[in-house]
Amino acid sequence: MMGKAVTISEADLAFIESYDPSVFPPNAVTADVILLTIRSGRLAVLLVERDNPPQQGCWALPGGHLDPEESITQTALRELSEKTGFTAEPTHLEQLQTYSTPGRDARDKKVRVTSVAYLAFMPDPGTPRAGADTRSARFWAVDDLPEFNSLIVQGEGPILAFDHAKMLNDGLERAAAKLEYTTLATAFVDDRFTISDLRHVYEAVWRCDINPANFSRKVKATPDFIDPTGSQRATGRAPAGLYVKGEADIISPPFFRPALA
Amino acid sequence: MMGKAVTISEADLAFIESYDPSVFPPNAVTADVILLTIRSGRLAVLLVERDNPPQQGCWALPGGHLDPEESITQTALRELSEKTGFTAEPTHLEQLQTYSTPGRDARDKKVRVTSVAYLAFMPDPGTPRAGADTRSARFWAVDDLPEFNSLIVQGEGPILAFDHAKMLNDGLERAAAKLEYTTLATAFVDDRFTISDLRHVYEAVWRCDINPANFSRKVKATPDFIDPTGSQRATGRAPAGLYVKGEADIISPPFFRPALA
DNA sequence: CGAATAGTGTCTGTAAGACACTATTCC
DNA sequence: GGAATAGTGTCTTACAGACACTATTCG
């Protein structure tokens, strides 16, 4: 559903003319992107190594400031492209949550920094190149990141800047939840894929094993989840059918992930 | 899980000293609250009639500007209290989404206005009183609001300001979805409630009839959803057991709402 | 051949939903 | 008594998950 276009009345035009925005305190608004992909069967997230203060040398989610004429979603896409050199857009992008706790960014001492986090999925886009303000950029397997709620030991993994560990955690939970009732697993695989490819997405995001027989049957029984192409992929041990994403965005009944261990 | 507390290094302190926030364009950040309750068995939302431009005379979600020292969640609670006179806090408050499309607020001509929408639930708190900048404040039954995606005819219902119709729509969808897999229906009823009370919440939010027999059995079979108090309420036709909310926040397996008609 | 993968058949346990039926209270 | 509400019993259907089994390809 679209919002109704806002028309500006004459009374409002007059008001705006005389409106003084400086009566309200200044704010900075940024967008940060949690870009997830599957590499070597493992769930991985894109991080950039900061080349400037604050938190110079820490690893952070790619992101940056909202420009005046762009939507915050456009900010997310622009920063992702600028910081990583990727030309392809993610196959899925959704807003996750907004983080605005006072003190989350050291710059809060001068201006309040509110960040809108985005969650993005795409098939493995290859190796990023470091962009503006970044020392390096790479995918990290989520399993290789330090436990978010334990002490971080130098050298064992990247140190995450700001509250990005919390953002990432929220994003991983959202991703796992969304695979239950949507067809978003297809956002992680190439245009044409096998049912095994799709199952590997579920296994990576949910961190569990899934029975191939039951999964195959369930995917094929869900209306408009996947459409057969008729062709087969013969690179594996046995030939497997190739499919494309179907029309459905919501799957009903849902796929349930196993209860947490 | 908590985010790691951010400690500020000496390098960052020096950086912050010299940091000039005016290199980034100015922004306004606001919080708007979608407060839902059940009145006379119908789902209702709190709206305030604007007494100042822009969109003077339109109905809007209660909300306002982020103060420098508060979290955006605190902004939501403060504005709700200021605009309606309610002293009790909602029994549930969660962040919904952030709205930042250029042009969503006429003040965008001077300063970009980004709004963080919150979704709140509580038992019927009675009649609000209009606060600062508001001509009046009242609950509207959601069914009595004009269709969001049709032309709004003057006099048939409140005209919603800004993109608040879209926010409300997103909030209603979130509320309906959350009743499926959480125990949040209890946030709409008093401390002690009957199973019928709880069923009426589901019926109002999902806008459907639910079989009382199956609902009763399912609620009682879900571990830690509700705890019996031992006492009974005798105001209805037949005595009904009184319950309080149990420990669980998530229900598994979920309650499914009927497929959309 | 043996190992690995793709996929079918079949069985079991759980749960949603339909509905008949009983019990209690108010009018 | 009659109407409305609270709650139990029971039956049917659907589906998740377990697992045996077949088919195909690669080494």
Fraction of residues in β-strands of chain A: 25-35%
Q: Helix-strand pattern of chain A, N to C? A: HEEEEHEEEHHHEE
Helix count of chain A equals: 5
Give helix % range of chain A: 10-25%
Unreliable segments of chain A (pLDDT under 50, ≥5 consecutive)?
1-6
Shape of chain A: globular
Identify the CATH class of the largest domain in chain A.
Answer: Alpha Beta
Oligomer state equals: homodimer
Name of the CATH superfamily of the largest domain in chain A: Nucleoside Triphosphate Pyrophosphohydrolase
Number of separate strands of chain A? 9
**Largest chain interface and its two residue counts?**
A-B, 64 and 62 residues
Determine the CATH topology of the largest domain in chain A. Answer: Nucleoside Triphosphate Pyrophosphohydrolase
The radius of gyration computed from the alpha-carbon positions of chain A, rounded to a whole number of angstroms, is 21 Å
Sheet with the most strands, sense and barrel status of chain A = 7 strands, mixed
CATH architecture of the largest domain in chain A: Alpha-Beta Complex
Report the structural category of chain A: alpha+beta
Distance N terminus to C terminus of chain A? 39 Å
Count of distinct structural domains of chain A: 2
